[in-house]
């Protein structure tokens, strides 16, 4: 398939995912087989050292980010659409790591690692975590709406790993623009049937030198196998993600998602839960400012961010241009610069319709929104927008928890052309991801 055909495929699939057609109309739902567990689940593997060696508490990082809780359950610290958890982590442990160098698959239910490939000669330092998804798990539930949710799930998992690294005194950097063929080659044949690698996280001790160069290339085998396209039909979730996986940068890079102030407390990561609806109570403006600032900083310039509120002065609020939180999170104790009003009126009832008819959203205290990703966006930009949105909302949820707020990610959006609804051009500013916010019980306003 040529690049032009792949761009057409992504545009058509994006329009379909944003339409109001229900998943029941999708052939993917009826055709998808029962998902198989990754090979990591079917093998005992190695015990994961909780507090690790070599300056990297790998086991603790995985506990705070991906480990099932309670043990054996499907729930994870990182949010996932429908609690389906389709993301599998493949670890490439280099020299001076917590285990012998080599490739390992992580089983979050048993907190064990299965070795599946030897390390190359002179493996890169640090631990590279390749994040892959099994599209069929989510497609069987969400049909043609699945592939954007899968990208969001990967972004959430990447953010969870970086937050857990910081909480344990290490550092985490994300790579969202590596070709899937490079990621698959680095894993070295350990992927379960039908899995697609879409992102990577580099974990290093805090005092390690900056990762110049490309750690993934040090693991890649020659020749690199082509990225697979699981599933049948031209617009299955697997086919679309495969096209997006090839929409990579010529020089993939690593970046460290910012975090406001001191490292997040482990209790926030262990205790993170998506609140059950309803989620009432409008948070104070200064707390909304902090949540907005964190999402805006992590999401870079790929998306714009605002928050919908009701109350006496309903509207869409955003960070003022040039404010301390516009592009990077503010430090603790920094006075809020206030919020800029983008539009007047209560958008929450409309958001409840756009969010796959989740009526409870109309009564939520506030809704954080990441928007952009035009209808004609290039595949590379579509991929970046959704991965960044997942990471941004994942980070914002932890910030919200630290501020004493309840929250719930909202990933499925239909007909959600926010720009057109607020008087702008059609097809330019679509909602990509959201986070419902509310105060604790007894604090409702």
From TrEMBL:
Residues 24-44, 317-336 have a biased composition (Low complexity). It comes from the Bacteria. Gene3D superfamilies: NADH Oxidase. Residues 24-46, 317-341 are annotated as: Disordered. This is Nitroreductase.
């Amino acid at each position: 398939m040529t690049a032009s055909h792949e761009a057409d495929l992504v545009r058509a699939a994006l329009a379909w995912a944003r339409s109001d057609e229900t998943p029941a109309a999708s052939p993917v739902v009826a055709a998808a087989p029962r998902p198989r567990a990754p090979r990591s689940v079917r093998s005992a593997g190695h015990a994961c050292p909780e507090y690790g060696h070599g300056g990297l508490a790998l086991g603790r990082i995985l506990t705070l980010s991906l480990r099932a809780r309670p043990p054996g359950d499907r729930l994870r610290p990182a949010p996932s659409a429908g609690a389906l958890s389709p993301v599998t982590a493949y670890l490439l442990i280099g020299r001076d790591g917590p285990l012998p160098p080599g490739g390992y698959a992580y089983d979050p239910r048993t907190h064990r690692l299965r070795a599946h490939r030897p390390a190359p000669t002179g493996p890169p330092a640090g631990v590279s975590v390749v994040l892959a998804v099994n599209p069929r798990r989510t497609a069987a539930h969400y049909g043609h709406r699945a592939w954007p949710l899968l990208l969001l799930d990967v972004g959430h998992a990447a953010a969870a790993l970086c937050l857990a690294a910081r909480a344990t005194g290490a550092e985490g950097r994300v790579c969202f623009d590596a070709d899937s063929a490079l990621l698959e080659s680095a894993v070295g044949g350990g992927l379960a049937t039908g899995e697609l690698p879409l992102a990577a996280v580099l974990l290093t001790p805090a005092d390690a030198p900056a990762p110049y160069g490309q750690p993934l290339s040090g693991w890649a085998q020659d020749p690199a196998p082509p990225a697979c396209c699981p599933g049948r039909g031209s617009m299955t979730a697997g086919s679309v993600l495969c096209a997006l996986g090839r929409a990579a940068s010529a020089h993939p890079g690593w970046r460290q998602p910012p975090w406001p102030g001191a490292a997040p407390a482990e209790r926030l990561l262990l205790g993170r839960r998506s609140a059950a609806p309803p989620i009432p109570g409008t948070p104070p403006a200064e707390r909304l400012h902090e949540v907005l600032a964190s999402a805006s900083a992590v999401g870079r310039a790929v998306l714009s961010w605002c928050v919908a509120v009701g109350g006496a002065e309903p509207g869409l609020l955003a960070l003022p241009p040039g404010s301390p939180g516009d592009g990077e999170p503010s430090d603790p104790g920094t006075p809020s610069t206030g919020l800029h009003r983008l539009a007047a009126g209560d958008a929450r009832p409309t958001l409840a319709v756009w969010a796959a008819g989740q009526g409870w959203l109309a009564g939520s205290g506030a809704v954080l929104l990441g928007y952009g990703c035009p209808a004609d966006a290039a595949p590379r930009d579509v991929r970046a927008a959704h991965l960044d949105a997942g990471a941004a909302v994942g980070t914002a949820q932890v910030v919200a928890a630290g501020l004493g707020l309840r929250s719930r990610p909202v990933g499925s959006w239909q007909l959600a052309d926010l720009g057109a609804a607020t008087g702008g051009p059609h097809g330019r500013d679509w909602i990509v991801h959201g986070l419902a916010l509310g105060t604790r019980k007894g604090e409702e306003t």
